[in-house]
Design goal:
Structural class: alpha+beta
Strand content: 15-25%
Mean pLDDT: 77
Largest sheet: 5 strands, antiparallel
Order of helices and strands: HHHEEHHEEEEE
Shape: globular
Low-confidence stretches: 39-60
Oligomer: single chain
Number of strands: 7
Helix content: 40-55%
Number of helices: 5
C-alpha cells in the first residue's frame, strides 16, 4: 500500500553535502600545512631576505585600527590561491597556531567544523578592528566569508595598495 517505504530524515539528504564539505576543508588545510612545510624549508632564505624586505615589514606595523587591509599567509604576497585558517577568539587562534605547527590537519578541520575557526582565501580584503602585540582582529570584507571576524598573526596583515 505504499507504507512499505521508509521516509528518510531531512539530515540524510544533507549528509552528502556535509561529507563533501569536510573533504574540501581537509584538502584546503593540507594545502596550508604543505605551504608551512615549504616555508620551513625556505626559512634560511627568508631570514636572509629580511633586510631586503624591511620596507614591507615597516608597512605591516603602520596599519591602524579601521584601515582596510589585505590578508595573506604566504611569504610571497602575490600568491593568492591558498587559504588560511583564522581563529574566532584569541584562544582559538593560539590553538590554530599549535595545530599548524604540529601539522595536525584533522585538528584544524575539527576546529572549523566546531565553529572555532574559519577559512579565508589569501588576498582577502578585511577591516582591521582590533590589535594586540602579536595578533590582529579583522572583519572579512569580500569572498565567501565576508562579514566573519577573527584573529590571526600580525604578519598576515598587509596595507592595501
Amino acid at each position: 500500500m505504499g507504507n512499505d517505504q521508509v521516509k528518510k530524515p531531512k539530515f540524510y539528504k544533507r549528509k552528502g553535502f556535509q561529507v563533501a564539505a569536510i573533504f574540501i576543508i581537509f584538502f584546503y588545510i593540507v594545502g596550508i600545512i604543505s605551504s608551512s612545510s615549504d616555508s620551513k624549508n625556505n626559512q634560511l632564505n627568508s631570514e636572509t631576505n629580511v633586510a631586503n624586505n624591511s620596507d614591507s615589514l615597516v608597512e605591516n606595523k603602520t596599519v591602524g585600527i579601521g584601515d582596510e587591509v589585505m590578508l595573506n599567509s604566504n611569504e610571497d604576497t602575490s600568491i593568492c590561491d591558498r587559504f588560511m585558517v583564522i581563529g574566532i577568539t584569541k584562544d582559538d587562534e593560539d590553538e590554530v597556531v599549535k595545530l599548524s605547527v604540529a601539522e595536525d590537519s584533522t585538528g584544524l578541520v575539527k576546529m572549523v567544523l566546531d565553529n572555532k575557526a574559519f577559512m579565508a582565501k589569501n588576498c582577502s580584503k578585511a577591516k582591521l578592528i582590533e590589535s594586540t602585540f602579536t595578533l590582529r582582529r579583522v572583519r572579512i570584507l569580500d569572498g565567501d566569508t565576508a562579514g566573519f571576524d577573527g584573529w590571526l598573526p600580525f604578519e598576515w596583515v598587509y596595507p592595501t595598495k
